[in-house]
Q: What sequence folds into this?
């Protein structure tokens, strides 16, 4: 049994948070979020002429008295949202100190818990070479299955980021906020993000890097082996090479950020050295993801 | 380039493969698993854009180590270039230190160039090789004799200073011949500008190599400066000579008693001289002439200054004992500081002291008792304590002595005919200045502290008085007998001792040197001798009786030596050797210039670079820190 993802005090703090969405999205069941559809709530939305078959209980009789024609009074529907948690569980994530994969699971867990506590639906998927999905859960009751799912996840081998994203987008009917936790260390990261943002998902990319990746502590001649592909790169790590690595990293992150900004994707960088609690409670609120 | 120890190169074959093998072993990199090589791949892609240089950079340490090895092995093999130098084991170095070696046409001076060359030669000596250092010019010196101690040799060479004297190599070469005759594998190296006097009859038993020093010949010198009494005051005569070949211009500044009197612009053609004649007041005591060189082409500075002194008013009393001789009296009358005192031939007792009458001339008479002081006998009729007259010579021919006797300075006696002369048997004190058939005709020498000159024939018995040589001969003789009385009496050559005849009553003689130093000379045997006339300039000699000053004379020491002022370097030196060579060997490449020290030094530099490359991270870090600090 892996250690619990959170302690109870952190969960109580999470209770006070709520997920913000920028778009109004439709859901399946009645919930607490405004939907683009008309439905039953206390908030008036519009009138429309009566058509045969309409529920006569919705006819606005005051208006009929004035106009002598039937109009239906429409109200804003309040529906649930489906929050998608997409966790990269490739071997490259299971690396670093603190571990990136653990970090991704905890961040996803916190995110999911916040969503569940506001009666939204949460669907969690971990993907590597094979993907595992948690059937969507709803309400606080769903927190336990979510946490169990996340806790029992283990990192797989490598995987095709682009194919996974494409399949996910095609198979999931309900668009909604999507949290994508990955280190994006794939040649096709651009294509994958484009696929995710192509539908109505409101994508938030959580770009997780470990301190060892942000500033590697290497000195000497090394043969670096890729954790996923086993591919080797020979480097001579001197200060100059490390400096070039840093420049490279910075330009890569800037490139991702530029790409995301251009497509309305929320891009969040996180160093696993930052505690999850601090990241969720302060950084995410600052970025306007949570309230 | 050749090697002294080529076998050392083999060591490269052993150590080189070891270095390469170690490098190949080190190439096995440490393996490390990372999350993804994604970012590293990107970096390596950047790096490979300038791959050739990067590849080289990766191998930089290996290349540096191989270079270091190559340098060290080369140094061990002791490479050398053949140079002009020496090949023997016993080196006799003759270094010219005459005035012309002070020329500055080569860096610093010719003497310093000679010293550098000498040290180079000493460095080329094989292990256990010995060297002797002879400083020639002026008084010969041997500062290091047959020693293997390089430090001593170097100190000896560096201790040599320019001595403004003549550059006669004869004593040095004679000594070198004697030294090399007893030692096999000897070599004589002459380091000089070639303006030297060489012995004609010496045959060197060893190889003589000549290392010429000097490049230019441009030199203008003051070749004459005299002060003569005239009717109005004194007449100054100054002459500047261009010893070089190209026309040049100079300014001649004349200082009277230390203050500037006049300046003359001189235009001097190559090899020509120019004279200045000026009237100066009678009270002037010391005249200094300076050649000012605005062109900067003058290579020798020490002959650009000259001094002349005036002893007007102080004249020497010369007693002439004889029947009267018009020629002699006229010649004496021409000498400015000689006061002839005619005494009848019958005089036989002399009461004056040597201080009152320093010189006595006996013209055809020999008194039974001779007076004190210096003596000049002309045609003596009888023997004295100094010589004996044994007969008579008829029509003797004159053969002046070789060398430059001061009595024969500027004189040619080849035209002189003598009717008859006394046959004189000289004592051992005398040197023969002019020889004749059957007996000497002119003798000079010193005995018991007095100078004696004997002319064997009567002036009237020859055509000498009708020739130019006569007044000059009398002047030279008077300069010798009474220093300070001849025409050039107050002029001394550097190193020429100053002998002042003094009385018994004189207790001390004080000499003031040009640099203000005072030297007290104690008179001995009726004369005070001061020999330290190395400095150029005006000397003041004061004679004292206790605290009382009784006489003061001035002397000027000048170079006035065309031999030294003519500084054109010679490329060859005629030194006959027993091997049959008539010339000293020049420019033969027998020396070995080793340069392993430079290779070793270079290896050290490479080692430092290798070390720095190995620690380049630290250097980059330091550079960044420095930049950050500069930016801040």
A:
């Amino acid at each position: 049994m892996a250690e619990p993802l959170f302690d109870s005090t952190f969960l109580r703090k999470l209770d006070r948070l709520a997920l913000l969405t920028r778009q109004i999205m439709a859901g399946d069941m009645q919930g607490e979020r405004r939907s683009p559809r008309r439905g039953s709530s206390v908030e008036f939305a519009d009138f429309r002429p009566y058509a045969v078959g309409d529920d006569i209980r919705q006819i606005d009789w005051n208006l009929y008295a004035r106009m002598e024609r039937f109009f239906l009074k429409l109200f804003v529907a309040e529906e649930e949202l489906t929050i998608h948690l997409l966790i990269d569980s490739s071997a490259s994530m299971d690396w670093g100190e603190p571990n990136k994969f653990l970090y991704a699971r905890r961040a996803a867990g916190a995110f999911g818990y916040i969503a569940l506590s506001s009666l939204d639906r949460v669907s969690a998927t971990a993907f590597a070479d094979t993907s595992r999905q948690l059937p969507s859960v709803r309400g606080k009751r769903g927190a336990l299955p979510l946490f169990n799912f996340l806790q029992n996840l283990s990192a797989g081998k490598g995987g095709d980021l682009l194919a996974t994203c494409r399949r996910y987008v095609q198979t999931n009917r309900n668009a909604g906020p999507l949290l994508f936790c990955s280190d994006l260390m794939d040649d096709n990261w651009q294509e994958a993000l484009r696929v995710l943002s192509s539908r109505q998902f409101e994508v938030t990319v959580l770009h997780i890097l470990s301190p060892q990746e942000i500033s590697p502590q290497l000195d000497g001649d090394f043969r670096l082996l890729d954790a996923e592909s086993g591919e080797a790169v020979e480097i001579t790590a001197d200060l100059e090479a490390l400096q070039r690595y840093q420049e490279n990293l910075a330009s890569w992150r800037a490139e991702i950020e530029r790409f995301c900004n251009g497509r309305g994707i929320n891009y969040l960088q996180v160093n696993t050295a930052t505690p999850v609690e601090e990241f969720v409670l302060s950084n995410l609120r600052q970025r306007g993801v949570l309230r | 380039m050749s090697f002294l120890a080529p076998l050392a190169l083999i060591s490269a074959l052993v150590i080189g493969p070891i270095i390469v093998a170690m490098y190949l072993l080190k190439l096995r990199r440490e393996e490390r698993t990372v999350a993804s090589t994604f970012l590293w791949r990107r970096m390596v892609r950047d790096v490979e854009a300038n791959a050739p240089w990067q590849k080289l950079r990766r191998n930089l340490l290996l290349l540096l180590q191989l270079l270091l090895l190559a340098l060290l092995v080369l140094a061990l093999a002791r490479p050398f270039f053949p140079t002009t130098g020496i090949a023997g084991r016993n080196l006799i170095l003759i270094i010219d230190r005459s005035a012309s070696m002070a020329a500055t046409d080569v860096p610093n001076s010719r003497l310093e160039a000679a010293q550098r060359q000498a040290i180079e030669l000493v460095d080329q000596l094989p292990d256990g090789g010995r060297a002797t250092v002879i400083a020639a010019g002026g008084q010969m010196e041997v500062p290091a004799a047959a020693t293997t101690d390089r430090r001593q040799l170097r100190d000896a060479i560096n201790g040599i200073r320019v001595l403004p004297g003549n550059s006669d190599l004869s004593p040095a070469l004679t000594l070198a011949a004697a030294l090399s005759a007893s030692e096999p594998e000897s070599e004589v190296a002459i380091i000089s500008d070639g303006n030297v006097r060489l012995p004609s009859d010496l045959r060197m038993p060893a190889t003589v190599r000549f290392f010429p020093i000097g490049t230019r010949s441009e030199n203008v010198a003051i070749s004459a400066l005299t002060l003569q009494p005239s009717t109005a005051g004194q007449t100054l005569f100054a002459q500047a000579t261009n010893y070089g070949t190209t026309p040049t211009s100079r300014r001649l500044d004349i200082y009277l008693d230390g203050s500037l009197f006049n300046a003359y612009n001189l235009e001097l053609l190559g090899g020509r001289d120019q004279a200045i004649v000026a009237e100066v007041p009678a009270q002037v005591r010391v005249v200094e002439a300076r050649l000012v060189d605005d062109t900067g082409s003058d290579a020798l500075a020490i002959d650009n200054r000259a001094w002349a002194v005036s002893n007007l008013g102080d004249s020497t009393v010369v007693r002439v004992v004889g029947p009267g001789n018009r020629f002699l009296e006229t010649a004496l009358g021409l000498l400015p500081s000689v006061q002839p005192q005619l005494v009848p031939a019958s005089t036989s007792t002399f009461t004056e002291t040597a201080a009152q009458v320093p010189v006595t001339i006996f013209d055809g008479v020999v008194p039974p008792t001779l007076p004190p002081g210096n003596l000049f006998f002309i045609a003596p009729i009888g023997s004295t304590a100094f010589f004996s007259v044994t007969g008579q010579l008829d029509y003797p021919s004159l053969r002046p002595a070789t060398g430059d006797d001061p009595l024969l300075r500027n004189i040619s006696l080849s035209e002189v005919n003598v009717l008859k002369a006394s046959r004189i048997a000289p004592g051992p004190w005398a040197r023969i200045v002019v020889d004749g058939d059957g007996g000497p005709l002119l003798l000079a020498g010193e005995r018991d502290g007095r100078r004696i000159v004997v002319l064997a024939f009567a002036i009237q018995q020859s055509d000498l008085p009708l020739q130019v040589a006569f007044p000059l001969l009398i002047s030279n003789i008077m300069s010798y007998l009474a220093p300070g009385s001849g025409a050039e009496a107050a002029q001394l050559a550097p190193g020429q001792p100053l002998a002042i005849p003094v009385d018994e009553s004189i207790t001390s003689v004080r000499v003031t040197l040009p640099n203000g130093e005072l030297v007290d000379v104690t008179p001995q045997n009726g004369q005070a001798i001061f020999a330290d006339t190395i400095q150029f300039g005006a000397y003041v000699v004061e004679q004292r009786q206790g605290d009382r000053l009784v006489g003061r004379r001035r002397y000027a020491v000048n170079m006035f030596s065309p031999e030294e002022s003519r500084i054109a370097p010679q490329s060859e030196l005629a030194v006959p050797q027993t091997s049959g060579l008539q010339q000293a060997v020049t420019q033969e490449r027998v020396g070995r210039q080793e340069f392993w020290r430079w290779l070793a030094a270079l290896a050290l530099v490479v080692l430092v670079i290798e070390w720095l490359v190995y620690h380049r991270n630290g250097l980059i870090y330091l550079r960044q820190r420095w930049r950050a600090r500069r930016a801040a």
